[in-house]
Write a structure and sequence with these properties.
The structure is a single chain. The chain is of the alpha/beta class and 389 residues long. The protein has 2 domains: 250 residues, Type I PLP-dependent aspartate aminotransferase-like (Major domain) (Aspartate Aminotransferase, domain 2), CATH 3.40.640.10; 131 residues, Alpha-Beta Complex (Aspartate Aminotransferase, domain 1), CATH 3.90.1150. It has 14 helices and 12 strands. The chain has a 7-stranded mixed sheet with strand order 1-7-6-5-4-2-3, with helices on both faces. Helix 2 packs parallel to helix 9 and helix 3 crosses helix 8. The chain binds pyridoxal-5'-phosphate (PLP). The site of pyridoxal-5'-phosphate has 14 residues, from helix 3 and helix 4.
């Protein structure tokens, strides 16, 4: 394909990596086949057929996804893993040595914190968790041995927004690698590499897959040396995305733009509805003017996403009763699928974060997180209305 860089987002999402093969003997599929073969035969001992040897190292379906992911994030290289946490652990295994130091946002997804604090703890590196809303906190935490800065923006579940460009200027000055988890906005709304990040990571289980039916993780980057290190570990550690899961993810990506438009539109409407409800104490959504980083969110991304957190009046039992009364919102962990989900971070997604830490960063017992789906918004609001009594 000529000039593919100039294609719009949806054109890339549909075509890149899946160009029909018209070579002699090929079939011209418009959708990449699911290559289930774990090994690939060759005619000559020292010449793997089209570069393929063994699926853990390289698989045609996964490769199509990796090429598509890279093009959507405006990156040179993409890598697909078995889950978001598999992608994250492979980054850490590739780039961190004992004695190194990491600076991380204090409001990361609970599983990412657990990975850093409880799993990689055994590898003898230490981490400073800071409030990255103020880039100065990042700069102040950087030490001689700091290797990585790890951000999520917006964060899970408090939807704090950090200034990726300003932080990337700091990390560049100190020779530190900046990793941004872009799960909440997806490349449709935010492109951290364009803002100066070195590595983008996703739980593609969420918006990228988009249908709550496939787990996955992705890494996208521009620097060839970093890519080679992570690619080496992708194969050597082996947490790769399976061919069928690669196909499901490719299928999901094709509608990423239209899904995200609808998630965003529905979420804006629901956030405004919640803001006026007497039972709701506080609504956190970057698209609301009341969000402390609303201006920054508007500047660095082209949409606000489909996640809203809000605090309801009363006790944890009132919050549980509200959640259990809903009909359309599924009471479930995860986010980013076409169906609306609701959860209580203190007892569900963030239960692995110690209570004192949760309280310190603002995850109260009545903080509710919703992942707004793409259903008809009037039905979603009616469901919230009957449960918020
Ligand atoms: N990053 C974020 C922001 C997440 O919300 C999650 C999961 O909820 C992950 C990473 C981990 O991804 P996975 O569940 O695909 O391992």
């Amino acid at each position: 394909m000529a000039n593919t860089k100039n294609y719009g987002f949806s054109t890339k999402a549909i075509h890149i990596g899946e160009e029909p093969d018209f070579r002699e003997g090929a079939t011209g599929d418009v959708v990449i086949p699911i290559h289930l073969s774990t090994t690939f035969a060759r005619k000559k001992v020292d010449k793997p057929t089209a570069g393929y040897e063994y699926t853990r190292s390289l698989n045609p379906t996964r490769n199509a996804l990796e090429i598509k992911l890279a093009s959507l994030e405006n990156g040179r290289f993409g890598l697909a893993f078995a889950s978001g946490l598999a992608a994250e652990s492979t980054i850490l295994l590739s780039l961190i040595k004992p004695g190194d130091h990491i600076v991380a946002f204090d409001d990361l997804y609970g599983g990412t914190k657990r990975l850093i604090n409880q799993v990689f703890d055994n590898y003898n590196f230490n981490t400073s968790f800071v409030d990255a809303v103020d880039p100065k906190n990042i700069e102040n935490a950087i030490k001689e041995n700091t290797k990585l800065v790890w951000l999520e923006s917006p964060t899970n579940p408090l939807l704090k927004v950090s200034d990726i460009k300003a932080i990337s200027e700091i990390t560049k000055r100190h020779g530190v690698i900046l990793v941004v988890d872009n799960t909440f906005l997806s490349p449709y709304f935010q492109k951290p590499l364009d803002l100066g990040a070195d590595i983008v990571v996703h739980s593609s289980t969420k918006y990228i897959g988009g249908h709550s039916d496939v787990l996955g993780g992705s890494v996208i980057l521009n620097d060839e040396d970093l890519y080679k290190k992570i690619q080496y570990h992708q194969n050597a550690v082996g947490a790769v995305l399976a061919p069928f899961d690669s196909y499901l993810t490719l299928r999901g990506i094709k509608t990423l733009a239209i899904r995200l438009e609808r998630h965003n539109k529905n979420a804006i409407e629901i956030a405004h509805y919640l803001e006026k409800h007497p039972k709701v104490i506080k609504v956190i959504y970057p698209g609301l003017k009341s969000h402390p980083q609303h201006e920054l969110a508007t500047k660095q991304a082209t949409g606000y996403g489909g996640i809203i957190s809000f605090e309801i009046a009363g006790t944890i039992d009132d919050a549980k009763a509200f959640l259990e009364k809903l009909n359309l919102f599924a009471l479930a962990e995860s986010l980013g699928g076409v169906e609306s989900l609701i959860e209580l971070p203190a007892v569900m997604t963030h239960a692995s974060v110690a209570k004192e830490v949760r309280e310190q960063i603002g995850i109260s017992d009545t903080l509710v997180r919703i992942s707004v789906g793409i259903e008809d918004v009037a039905d979603l609001i009616a469901d919230l209305e009957q449960a918020l009594v």
